[in-house]
């Protein structure tokens, strides 16, 4: 598998890239090639007085490459100019990336959780599965919110086609996943469905749980009712997963639920990491 790791050379990006546990997690799911991408704003020029961007960027990328190479990955760097999320998406398509990883600052004790503009824009436009790796300030320094990216996955589904596509991510996540929580949120807009026409939400979740348990993943089910994004976030708070897995821009045949807005809210407000799976490129 080929992963693209986006970095703006900030402290949060450095923590995300240099965290050995996160690299180990990527290795377990089959990643063997990592492309480091940093996007330079068109407003930044090497000749700006008092700022040596070129040497700083080169030193940082050399340091990151050394860490990634020693962890056993092939590594390649890309330095480009333009709008970050557009250039990241373009490179992801060009190299046929299987995964994009971006670090995102968490919240401080004095402020609400916010998400960087690049991570937010990638959540809206990503063309490949996107991992938002949460970084927050601890007592002394920045650190990942959850060291193990994929150990406990909370999978949110509305049973749409794209939610099913997100579930397929378990085919590679299972090598690093020990626990899974499957959550479905019923809304007042759900039509009345007879058992003869459709299996119940619980039955559908049980089918998925059986698949995961065959792979040795301890699985639990959580069916809720209310606002989808709010209840998924409450489920995350209740189960404390290391990552929340959700599809984007899906639409269920059972009800009109555009997961684009739901997934965007989850990416913006979740406490843990998020794995966002977009529709198929085809």
From TrEMBL:
Coiled-coil regions listed in the entry: none
Gene3D superfamilies in the record: 3.40.50.12370, HUPs
Domain UspA: 2-132, 150-278
Superkingdom of this protein's organism: Archaea
Entries under Pfam families matching the protein: Usp
CDD domains attached to this UniProt entry: USP-like
Family: Belongs to the universal stress protein A family.
Protein known as: Universal stress protein
């Amino acid at each position: 598998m080929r992963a693209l790791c986006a970095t703006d050379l900030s402290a949060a990006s450095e923590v995300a890239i240099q965290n050995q546990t996160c690299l180990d997690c990527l290795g377990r799911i089959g990643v063997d090639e990592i492309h480091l991408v940093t996007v330079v704003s068109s407003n930044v020029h090497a000749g700006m007085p008092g700022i040596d961007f070129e040497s700083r960027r080169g030193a940082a990328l050399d340091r990151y490459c050394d860490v990634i190479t020693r962890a056993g990955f092939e590594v390649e760097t890309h330095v480009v100019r333009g709008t970050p999320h557009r250039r990241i998406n373009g490179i992801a398509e060009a190299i046929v990336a299987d995964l994009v990883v971006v670090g995102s600052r968490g919240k401080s004790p004095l402020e609400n959780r916010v998400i960087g503009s690049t991570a937010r824009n990638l959540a809206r436009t990503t063309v490949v599965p996107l991992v938002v790796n949460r970084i927050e300030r601890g007592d002394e320094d920045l650190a990942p919110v959850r060291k193990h990216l994929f150990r406990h996955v909370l999978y949110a589904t509305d049973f749409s086609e794209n939610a099913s596509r997100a579930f397929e991510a378990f085919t590679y996540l299972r090598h690093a996943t020990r626990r899974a929580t499957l959550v479905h949120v019923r809304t007042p807009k759900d039509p009345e469905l007879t058992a003869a026409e459709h299996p119940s939400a619980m039955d559908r979740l049980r089918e998925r749980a059986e698949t995961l348990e065959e792979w040795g993943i301890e699985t639990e089910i959580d069916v809720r009712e209310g606002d989808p994004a709010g209840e998924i976030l409450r489920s995350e708070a209740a189960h404390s997963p290391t990552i929340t897995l959700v599809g984007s821009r899906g639409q269920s045949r059972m009800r009109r639920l555009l997961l684009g807005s739901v997934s965007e809210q989850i990416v913006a407000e979740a406490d843990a990491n998020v794995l966002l799976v977009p529709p198929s490129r085809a």
